[in-house]
Amino acid sequence: MDVDNLQHSYNQEFIRNLEKYKLLTGSTPVSLLISTCLAVIMSAVLHGQLAYESLLAWLVVVLFINITRLLVFTRFHHSHSGTHNQEWIQFHLRVFRFGTLLSGLVWGWAGFVFAQQVDFTHQLFITFTLGGLTVGATSSLATDKLAIIGFILATLMPNTIHYFISGSQLPVAMGLMLLLFIGFMLNAARLQGKHLHENLNLRIQAKQQAKQFREVLDFSPVSVSIFSLDTEEVLYINKRYLELFSHGFNPFNTDNETGFSIEESQIKSVKSRVMNNQRVSNLLLKLTSPRSSEVKWCIGSFLPINYLDPPSILSWFYDITDRVEMEEKIRHLAYHDALTDLPNRYLFEDRLSLALRHAQRNQK
């Protein structure tokens, strides 16, 4: 039992870290592009204030870090999911945090060193750029406390220190304002991170429930399928469905030339009721195929659901073809000889009785 609990905890931690990493890196390409654009703009604005070599070296470092982070992001998202494990995710989380901290330090270096070499107007421009950068980063980094705290402090604290060591009244006031801004950003990141963690937990729970739902349906003796209500796209089919129909069957496609199809009138009625949020239960369906004379008989039920957000239709098909054929065979044997397959006296008596009743009605 302890081993099972440990394994369950390990899997839970792995899923949580994987989803956190995906959430952290979801906007990485856009964030890196914006960071690069801001670096280029700031270099262009400060071009007349600083030595060309210093600006170029700083810009090259920013570009190198951003390209490296983009390559790490690309490598992860193109890696096979089978290689993902707890150690792999932990490693990429550490690399992501280190890359974020390094980016913050490079921007913080500009906020300290460059700000000391330019006039007050350009100092305010640098501060404004750094503040905008941290505000934008909060929305994507708030999921990870270490990443967001490291980036905010590394980016803004050097610029704050620059104002405090300047000595005059206005820069010191700017330093105090930056300290208040840092506190505000850390608190905002904490609150946003709390909401993101709640959403992350709900997302993980939804995926786990969907997985359990699929596992239960895979062992069902009933054919089960889930189709999108709008696009009729296949969202899920279980093993029994594949055994019964293969991929060629879409219950809502009446023009199927490769697999089985249901009568158009029945499907229109079912879809109309489902779109009105009504369920259809135990409907006798006759399935035919244009490629063969084979006929399948099923009891079908249809239920409107939301499967991973989009409105969908859950369909259940219970195959009763053998039962229908057996009943037809029994009816046939009741009126035909088992050896010769010729009509027997029961069929003669039945037809004679029908003919007599018909004659009596005509006489009346």
Give a written overview of the molecule.
The longest helix is centred in the middle third of the chain and has 50 residues, at 169-218. The chain has a 6-stranded antiparallel beta sheet with strand order 2-1-6-5-4-3. Strand 5 (295-306) and strand 6 form a beta hairpin. It has helices spanning 2-25, 28-45, 52-77, 86-113, 120-141, 145-166, 169-218, 239-245, 264-275, 321-335, 345-363, and strands spanning 223-228, 234-237, 261-262, 280-288, 295-306, 311-319. It has 3 domains: 2-214, no CATH class; 220-319, 2-Layer Sandwich (Beta-Lactamase); 335-363. It has 364 residues and is of the alpha+beta class. It is rod-shaped, with a radius of gyration of 35 Å. Helix 5 (120-141) runs antiparallel to helix 6. The relative contact order is 0.06. It starts with a helix and ends with a helix.
Key descriptive features of the protein:
single chain; 364 residues; alpha+beta; Beta-Lactamase; 3 domains; six-stranded antiparallel β-sheet; 11 helices; 6 strands; disordered N terminus
The coarse silhouette is rod-shaped
Helical residue percent band: 55-70%
If helices are DSSP runs of H or I spanning 4 or more residues, what is the number of helices? 11
Strand content: 5-15%
Poorly predicted residue ranges: 1-8
Mean pLDDT, nearest integer? 82
Summarize, please:
The protein has helices at 2-25, 28-45, 52-77, 86-113, 120-141, 145-166, 169-218, 239-245, 264-275, 321-335, 345-363; strands at residues 223-228, 234-237, 261-262, 280-288, 295-306, 311-319. The chain has 364 residues and is an alpha+beta fold. The protein folds into 3 domains: 2-214, no CATH class; 220-319, PAS domain (Beta-Lactamase, 2-Layer Sandwich), CATH 3.30.450; 335-363.
